[in-house]
What does this fold into?
Amino acid sequence: MPYPNGPEWSALQNRIITNEDGKIELSTVACGKLKLPSGQLMVCDPFAAMSKSGNAFIQIKPGEYEVIVTVADVSADLDGSHFREAYASLILDETQAESTRQPLELTLTEEPSQQPLQDGEFYGYGVDAGTACFADAQTIKSDMPDEDTWYDDLFESENRDSWFDQMDDEKLIRRGIANIRLPLTNSDNNLILFHSGWGDGFYPVVGGYSADGTLIAIHTDFHVVELSEYEDEDEDEDKDETTDSATQPLVTESSVNAEVMTRETKPWWKFWS
It folds into this structure.
C-alpha cells in the first residue's frame, strides 16, 4: 500500500519494530497543547525558515490541540542511550481512530494548489537547523518581536529561558522538545519545537483521517522508521512482507517549496554511518 498508508506507519505507537538498520523501540511523549486561535497551522524549521509573516500553513478549525511526539530508541541494545524523534503529531480528535492518511500541502493561502501527486509522493518542507515546530501563523505575526532580534534575544540569549536552553532542558518535557510561550503574548499563545529525527532534510506533512473522512490528526514524519525490511514484532508479521523503498518517491514539487527528492535519494546521514 503506497506511503503513507503502508504497515510501516508508526506515529503514536508504542512498540518494537525491525527495519533495515535493526530494532528500534517507539514510545510517545506528551508535549502539552498548542493554541491555534486562527487555525493556521505552520509546520516549519523555526530557526532557519520561520518569519514573522508570510509563513505557509494548513487551515484547520481554530482551537487548542494536544501535541504528541513519537520517539525512537535507536541504540544497538535498546538501552535508551540514543533517541531520535520519529514523528510529531497534532491531535484534532482523540475520540476517533485513524483509518487512512494522505499528504497535506502547506500554502500561503487557505487553498492548496491541487497539484497532482503520483503514488507515494508528498508535499513537504525543508529543515536546515535540525528542528521543526508546530505554530499558529497569526500568533507568530502578532506575538513575536522584530525578526532581527530573534537569534540574540530569544534563540540563544544569555537568559536561562532561551529557546535552545529550553530544548536542552531534560526537566521540562525531555531533551530535544520544548513548549515555548511566545514572548509578546497576553493569552499564553505558544509554539512547540522538536528535533527533526536524524537532522536536516525534507519532510512531509500527513493528514490522518477517520473512516468517515474526518481529519483527526496532522503528522510530520522524520523518516526514522525506514520502509524496507519492515517487521512489527508485536504483531509477529511475516518477515517476507516488505516494502520496496526504491519504488516509493516521497517528495514532489509544491507551491511552497520547489525541492524534489525521493526515497531513491540516499538520506545524507546514511553517508556517514
